[in-house]
Amino acid sequence: MLYFFYGDDIVEVKKRALRLVESLRERKPQASYFTVSPDNWREFSLEELLHGRTLFEQNYIVLGDRLSHLPAEDWEAVVSSLETMAGSSHVFLLVEQQLNSGTFKKIEKYADRSEIRSSQKGGPSVQEFDVFALTEAAANRQKGKSWELFHLALQSGKRPEEIYGLLFWQFKTIVLAARTSGAEEAGVKNFPYQKARRFQRNFSFEELENKLYQLTLISYTGYSGKRTLSEELERFLLTL
């Protein structure tokens, strides 16, 4: 999982990144945490950071502090590893102040979440959280990633009702794709239909119907007073 924090006020940008680190560590107190910068880069191995394991916790958190200041060869290796970071079960946070346009866009492309800030009037502000990243993680049965993105969505101000609606739509579309032979028959656009066909491979048909049934029940139990809608959604994601 990859998060990108960027802006000309590097103190504020790093502060926001550290808030996320603190939140992640509260939920995973045994997870190891590393801050990597040009000053201590030689103490780490990029390959080990990407694929290593720690003694106490399977996953860990890595904060990369202005790694663009590394020697060119090392920075190129980091940029070449963005896709691996994004797909990792570990959590990577990149904090940067100045990047060229090409590198900036490449990091944004792979980041699960970006926060872009500027002190200049009319400059870029915090980007809208992409809830579809959460629905796609759920459709890919990535429990850990789904759970992390769910809490980040709530922190960014997304309402549980909005998240529920998109999750329900996602699984309903996957079930339709499993029952039909084409987008027209399913009554949906071709692009989401083709994505749903790919997601379908992650479940048996019985599992898909069960997941959709669970989501249908959540619309009632989430308002029954026994558990909140947020708690029901969290339970659903943790049992993908």
Give the neighbour order of strands across the main sheet. 2-3-4-1-5
CATH class of the largest domain: Alpha Beta
- Distance linking N and C termini: 18 Å
Number of helices: 12
Number of strands: 5
Helix content: 55-70%
What percentage of amino acids are in beta strands?
Answer: 5-15%
Order of helices and strands: EHEHEHHEHEHHHHHHH
> What is the CATH topology descriptor of the largest domain?
Rossmann fold
Quick one: overall form?
globular
CATH architecture of the largest domain: 3-Layer(aba) Sandwich
Question: What's the main sheet like?
Answer: 5 strands, parallel
Question: Averaging pLDDT over every residue, what do you get?
Answer: 85
**How many domains?**
2
Structural class: alpha/beta
Indicate the radius of gyration in whole angstroms.
Answer: 20 Å
State the low-pLDDT regions, or none.
120-127
